[in-house]
Amino acid sequence: MTTPPYPATAARRREPVIGLALGSGSARGWAHFGVLRALTRCGIRPGVVCGASIGALVGAAHVLGMGDRFEHWVLGLSRRDVMSFMDFSSGGGLLKGEKLMRFFRSQFTDRDFESLQTPFAAVATALHTGEEVWLREGSVVEAVRASIALPGLFTPVWHGGRLLVDGGLVNPVPVSLARALGADIVIAVDLNADLLGRHLRHGLPEVSPPPAAEPSIGWLQNLQRNLGWRKDEAAVAAAAAAPPPIPSVLEVMTSGIQIMQVRITRSRMSGDPPEFTIAPRLSQLSLLDFHRAQEAIAAGEQAAQESVGLLRELGLCPPAAGPA
Question: Taking the model in full, what pTM does it have?
Answer without folding.
Answer: 0.77
